[in-house]
Amino acid sequence: MKKITKYIFPILIFSALIACQDLDVPITTQLTPDVFPRDSVQFIAASGQVYAALRGNYATEYFFQQCYSTDEGIMPARGGNWFDGGQNKEMHYHSWTKDNGYVNGNWYWLSAIIGMANQTLSILGTNEPESAFKNTNLAEIRMVKAFAYFMLMDNYGNVPIIKGYGELYQHPTVPRAEVFKYIEDEIKACLPYLSTKNDVSTYGRPNYYTAQALLAKMYINALEYTGTERNNDCIAACDAIISSGKFSLASIADYLVMFYPTNGPTSPGSKNEFIFAIPFDATSVGNVGRSANYKARYDVPRSMGKVAAGAGYNYFNIPYTPGGPASTLPEYYAYFNDANDVRNKQWLTGLQYLPNGVTPLNITTTKAGYDAIAYPGDNTPYTFQLNLVPNITLRQSVELFDCGNDEVAWNMGYRNIKFYPDATSTSRNQNNDIPVFRYSDIILMKAEAIQRGGNATLGHTPLSLVNMLRAVRTTSAALGSVTLDDIYAERCREFAWEGWHRNDMIRFGKYEGTWGFKTSSDPNKRLFPIPTNATSVNKLLSQNPGY
Question: Which ranges carry the SusD-like N-terminal domain (predicted)?
Answer without folding.
Answer: 89-219
